[in-house]
Amino acid sequence: MDGLPTHRLIPDLVVLPGTREELVAVVRLLAALGVSFVPRGAGTGLSGGALAAEGSVLLVLTRLNRIVRIDRDSRLAVVEPGVVNAKLGAAARPAGLQYAPDPSSQSACTIGGNVAENAGGPHCLKYGVTANHILALEVLLADGSLVEIGSPSGESWGPDLVGVFVGSEGNFGIATRITVRLTPLPRAVRTLLADFTGLRTAGEAVSAIIATGIVPAALEMMDQSCINAVEDSVYAAGYPRDAAAVLLVEIDGRNSDAVVAETDVVTDLLRQSGARSVRSAATEAERERLWQGRKKAFGAMGRLSRDLVVQDAVVPRSVLPQVLETIAAIATHYGLVVSNVFHAGDGNLHPNISFDATDPVLKNKVEAASAEIMQACIAAGGTITGEHGVGIDKMRYMPLIFDAESLGAMQAVRRVFDPDERVNPGKVVPVHACREWTHARGDRVGSRGAAPRGEAA
Amino acid sequence: MTILEKVTALLGEGAVLEAGTDRVPRVAPGSPDAVALLLGTAHQEGWRVRIEGAGTWLQSDAPADLALTTRRLDRIPAIEPSDLTATAEAGIGLDQLRQQLADRGAWLAIDPPGLAGRTLGSVVSTATAGPLRHGFGPIKDHLLGVTFVTGDGRMVQSGGRVMKNVAGYDLTRLQAGGFGAFGVIVLVHLRLRTLPRADVTYVLEGAREDLTQVGEDIAAAGLTPAALELVSPALARRERWVLAVRLAGSPALVAADEAGLGAASGGGRFSPLRAEEAHAFWMRLAEGFSVRPVTFRIGGVPAASDELLDLLQHQLGDEWISASPAAGAIRWTGDTNIDRLQRLRRTLAGLEVPLTLERAPWPLRGAVGHFGAYREGVGPLVAGLRRTFDPGGALVVATEGS
Amino acid sequence: MTGIARGGFEGLDACVHCGFCLQACPTFLATGDESDSPRGRIELMRGLERGDIAATDPALISHLDRCLGCRGCEPVCPSGVQYGHGLEAARSRIAGSRPVPGVARLALWALTTPGISSVVYWFARVLRATGLPRLLAGWGRFGFAMGMLAATRAAQGGGGRRKAAKARQVAPAAIRRPSPPLATLLFRGCVMQGLFSHVHDATIRTLGVNGYQVRDVSGQVCCGALHAHAGLLDEARALARVNVDAFGDGDEPIVVNSAGCGALMKEYGRLLDDLRGERFGARVRDVTELLAGSAMKGPVAGEPLDLHVAYDPPCHLLHAQGIAVQPLKLFAAIPLLELVPVPGAAECCGSAGLFTLLEPEMSRAVLQTKIDRLREAAPQVVATGNPGCLMQIGAGLAAAGSAARARHPVELLDDAYRAAGRYE
Ligand SMILES: Cc1cc2nc3c(=O)[nH]c(=O)nc-3n(C[C@H](O)[C@H](O)[C@@H](O)COP(=O)(O)OP(=O)(O)OC[C@H]3O[C@@H](n4cnc5c(N)ncnc54)[C@H](O)[C@@H]3O)c2cc1C
Ligand SMILES: Cc1cc2nc3c(=O)[nH]c(=O)nc-3n(C[C@H](O)[C@H](O)[C@H](O)COP(=O)(O)OP(=O)(O)OC[C@H]3O[C@@H](n4cnc5c(N)ncnc54)[C@H](O)[C@@H]3O)c2cc1C
Ligand code: SF4
Ligand code: SF4
Q1: Is residue B56 located within the same domain as residue B153?
Q2: Span C48-77, pLDDT tens digits
Q3: Over the stretch A175-192, which tens digit does the pLDDT of each residue have?
Q4: C299-419: which CATH number, 3.90.380, 1.10.10, 1.10.287, 3.40.50?
Q5: Shortest Cα–Cα distance, A455 to chain C (Å)
Q6: Beta strands in B237-359 (DSSP E)
């Protein structure tokens, strides 16, 4: 079980290594026995990536949670995979630095999980996603060997294996030590809350801001049903309950004059685009409250119903207004409650569907609506996941965006790292839809044990 | 049938160009599909193919049966200024692309070394970033997706054209800096920025150590330059080392940084360059790297940059150097030999500093390789990837040296 | 009260597995095992309710036994999961299908049975008076128990323990007394009365200074919290009924200085599922609530005390009762007293009622982190308003060889008032 309510699996064995040496020993043993395994961080993943099926061993990495060092001069930190994202941020702060990627789950999720999913977050609009902040990795491959990839400067030894590993959803091996880039803390921050009476106008305001060339640190949108869920929770932030949507816009920088000037431009734009009101957080406490509301929105939506599916898709920013309308139409058609809370500046949508998983009819409707939403996003030029990953949940959509050849290429790369497909098996690439890339397999060792797979269109 | 006849039959007359001085037939496929067809055939026939970009500059010296140039893959299927994305074929010249983007108010914030007409594909495949990496990151940070053709003629897409994308494994980053070892890039989806409304450059001459200090002060003062480049006298064609600061962005931001610059340099010794001067300065810097025979880059943490510059000076002579210390990158160009390069690479490896050979005549790059001194366990992975994407070894690339 | 049909399990329905509670859970932080986290336990409890997991399942039992019941997971949950209610329901099911562990039975019997407990506490006090327990304090089972006992002793300089026995009937000093003084009823409890009567004395005196008259109520018994946490809901209910009767149907506030007791007593309505219980619950006030006053003006100021104090909010005060600021008002009323910040102060100390006896390993693991951080912050006093926490932290400090003492916040205020001559 993780953050995804529609899937639940029970592993054969759960191991919680306390040191890297223990972890290596366990993986070597599993290699000798030919048993597959699944790395797991905090289990906040939203695509079922950390679920282990029968016959697999779950390797829980939460105890490998040491911050090995923080280097202020070279602006980097070396951490073990189980370090919680927010704790790294807190540890870097005294040095005037931050770890920029801030998934909304940052108070719980681990850096290892972030690396595996290439996690994003509200502030990734300006600062980039996890992949932009990982300099080097020590990875433990399925055969039990440790390999160091990347270097402290970010320049790689040869091809960019770090880039390939980040976002591999635990399929290429376990990240056992992670070197991350830290960036200077912004010195000036302005946070704006703009409220709109229509989703469309809010969407248009997003495009207008992007077009100015000002890159806000964050540009987030929440619709009414989400606003109300937050306002009902302990994280109530004072969002206007009668707004159709609110935009949370943050401008930051190292120079306060520039930040003020940019904030003025953005405030005017928001007003011109039809914002009913634009409020600026007056104090750090108020800013914190506005953000807590946003970051805990997914949890807060738990109030709406027993279960909740968080979808994740990305569309070109300019089509946001149309896509939001399409999603609303799909929701109406299936009679479902869909709430939106998302990274508007990146076009990264998170439609959340509330339902009761104990009702099989509803569950089917949710699946059908999800699929339609995905199709609408793809048709608009988008993709099926912007930060939560494919896991098991999204495998069925992979053939909609990649042809058999490209899926085959992914599968083949995975086998370079893990010839027997023992790490986190059965995820990400739908093998039945791959064109097989067998020819290269002959020269590789250890290719026994792979299941036969068919050719597909 | 000769190779040339077979290729003509496959792709038509128009695709075959005049052979270069080494008489290797040169083919310019007109579409991604044609690239796939050609490489598929090459794989079956056992031909060895070398990839060229614009081809105007590349010394066609790699031993091959066939040279594949991407020069006819020069379309720009999409520019979306409102989304700040564009899609371009790999053979488009950067200057041409830049012009078309500028017409729509968009900007690709990269300034790689080499000539202005350098192809997009060559920049991506060699991951050669210039001074703008200080403010906007390495080449890979500007890519949303690529389509490439493998050494055995398969066409593979990765990524997409939206701002965030984690669908499937990231093969885009494998291609960025793969030097063509994992296939020929045919199409690139790019992340753009709006054309900066203010763009100014300041320079300061002085002793290297002093300038390094000024660079650190600028960072400490919280300025956010687009480029902060330390250039050696020979390359800058000046008496002493030069620290060049480029400020680009919204007028408010640039004005604020300009005000801060004087303070950071201890009393306004920086002199501004006029627009044409600035343009000429950065151009010269880029072109300088394609004049001398050998160019390489090394990556070291900011705190080590002084030490690394000393090391380069000591082992190779300081020749032509340009460095973005805060971004941890140093580029060197000049003349050297196999032995010295290999020794340098080993020394640097001991300091956790990778050396990537960007260009050199074939005898040297064939021996030294673009990459080398891998960490334990990396070699087999690279070899495995190479076998996966070019099972027959059709693509001639000096990946690791011999 | 709704949902009694499901006995509290309904409180878990809101959980959407977001995982935000993980980092707030001391047992998860200690083991890193998801099954020792709120989310994992919720999943187990849901299984128990559905019948997928038997109430006798050893894994279920061990993970639920290892829950401190501190409810640190509740205030961080954006979805409003009522973990405590679910836990009580689950424990009650488990208790119904297995004998309560011997240690727990014995401890409950010895500590809460009128007649028996007075003998036990008497022995304990005699032993404490010898000063031996502090010398013998350590991390082992015996040493730790000795440390806990030593921690119940009134601190030096706090003084006036014997005099206080008289002070109980003495009218509060006539300073800033609103006329007429407000009547309140003191809840004495079992452990508090047995080992912390000096805290009761301090409570009476400090409330007196602030215009409250504290009256004793006869016929009261243990609040039943220890039983409820052990899943012995029926026994807890029986105790609750006795207390409801003893305190009668007036409206005087019922003062409690033990956070654990207060938390349960405020919930008597839910426990008993009746109106009298609910009315009783509405009258219950933590002593710091009364001292801080309804407008949060804080108590009358005392004489300056040059002390470095670390405040350790008891889980049952902070999470279960939502009382965060009121205790701070007490410190604010003592000039010079400096609060030293300790990271993770709001995390559980691992005491959790009988937990420290039943799950010593987990309990010590949780405590260890806190003690390490306390040693770094180096306060002279660790203030906390719950007997279990006072003993647990006190024992930890003693075992770690720290000179710092664990004391109840009202004891500090009491010292400041005494120094100010308010009791003369
Ligand atoms: C003597 C001499 C030797 C040189 N040697 C090299 C060298 O070894 N490597 C080098 O990069 N530059 C080399 N150059 C310099 C380089 O050609 C120029 O810096 C650059 O401006 C030329 O750009 P181009 O577009 O012509 O790309 P090219 O120089 O034609 O291509 C550069 C590299 O990118 C690869 N490449 C180009 N397009 C693609 C594509 N679509 N997909 C995959 N790979 C692609 C090529 O295989 C080549 O390795 C050399 C120049 C000289 C004068
Ligand atoms: C409320 C909520 C909000 C969220 N908000 C965001 C958001 O804003 N942005 C975002 O990107 N995501 C978000 N997520 C998704 C999730 O938090 C991220 O995917 C996160 O990176 C997962 O981290 P984890 O430690 O929980 O990993 P897990 O869920 O435990 O694992 C995720 C995957 O990573 C693999 N893995 C874990 N550790 C390692 C390792 N050391 N080496 C190799 N593989 C490993 C696992 O096998 C699995 O496939 C949110 C989730 C929730 C519940
Ligand atoms: S925070 Fe609340 S909703 Fe989230 S996992 Fe914990 S109990 Fe469940
Ligand atoms: S009550 Fe305390 S120990 Fe139990 S799950 Fe909640 S936070 Fe953890």
Answers
A1: no
A2: 999 888 988 888 998 998 898 888 899 889
A3: 999 999 999 998 899 999
A4: 3.40.50
A5: 38
A6: 241-249, 271-273, 294-299, 320-324, 329-334, 355-359
